Amino acid sequence: MRILLSSWLVGLFIHGQLLAAETGPLAPGAGQFLFSQREGAAERSIKVWTYRPKQMAADAPVLFVMHGVQRDAERYRDEWQRYAEREAALLLVPEFSAASFPGSANYSSAKPKAQGADEDFAPAVYTAIENIFDRAVGSATLTTTEYRLYGHSAGAQFVHRFVMFNPRARVKIAVAANAGWYMMPDFDARFPYGLKGSGIDAARLKEALAKKLVVLLGEKDHDPAHPSLNRGAGPMRQGRQRFERGENFFQAASRAAAKLQTPLHWELRTVPDADHDNAKMAEPAARLLLR
Questions:
Q1: pTM of the full predicted structure?
Q2: Less Cβ crowding at N or C end of the chain, within 10 Å?
Q3: What is the CATH number for 221?
């Protein structure tokens, strides 16, 4: 019995990642699986909430949705599954729990790894997305080679930093909606508010500016007294409220592209009548991501 159990556990290790016991195909409808991200000797569990549409082609779109500061991934899965069904897309919502990833420095504004001979200084948390994509594509027997990425609020902070740290990731399009504050594409501003000390250089920033990133802002997300608005000194230098900070972030990207003499493929879009509410941002975001 002990030998059989050991063999079973060994079989779950694939490319250094411990996968959930559920190794079969993802069933249609709402579901979940457990994924463990290994970082050196440490191992962190990530529950991935899923939705597989009733009908799905082999090359179906794969959409990641990143939750906000409440770490309520199940709610985000439930709010987005209608769009996944409508567009016949596989929906993946990783839950970066406070227990496994405490504080913003382990999720939405993750710190870069120490620099050295290894070029992979991007925060280790970001590698989870690429690994979960491979896991899900294999489980769903898809031929899809790219994914779409959306985040709201703290999830939007994750998304825009992900693009800047990982411009070579397999992201077809990313949408960052209603971020509370930003890592500005500015080498004079210190990380986490800018690129100084981030390890990102001009060459990597040029690659990031060439990715398809949409900065999506709710036109009514402009309350300077919002209870969850970060009013620290760094964020306040970016603007008095979220809408203003988002505009300033995009303007900084435009200036950086001009200075680097490189095309800017980012877009700034707004949603009328939307405040700081993922449900109000989801429909226009889905049209951008899954069109």
A1: 0.89
A2: N
A3: 3.40.50.1820
